[in-house]
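Researcher: I'd like a structural prediction for the single chain below. Treat it as a standalone chain; there are no partners to consider.
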Amino acid sequence: MSETKPRMRRLAGLARARLDELDFQRIEAPRKARGKRWQLDSLLNLLVLAMMAGCKSLTDVEKLSDEMNGPVRRMLGINRRVADTTLRDLVCRLEPDALRPALHRIIKAAYRRKALKPQSLPFGMVAMDGKATSIPACDDDFAQIDLS
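Model: Treating it as a single chain, here is the predicted structure.
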């Protein structure tokens, strides 16, 4: 990750401006109070910044946390390297429903400041679970057919 420092400089300004909108302090910690070494919002902010930086694994996030400079560390509230096992344990315990309000807040804020534009596709969309269809397909040889 030799390009980490320039990448972190580019992302630091964006993160400084937008991570507060997530307001991770509202999320209830899924961990026990005993033995906590990290604030929940610091770890979640690190994970978001790592996704923005293009990290593909928790090992990459650990390397990123080790190579961060002082101002970024202070902004995130992380004073040393965060082990990938710490992040794994957090991600395994965290309920997706706990994150949904934070994601909703940041998407709503981005929409209000007109940072998101509606994307329209040239065709209609429908979501199906793939178990059955109500109309015959043009090629019934390859389509799933409900035999009940």
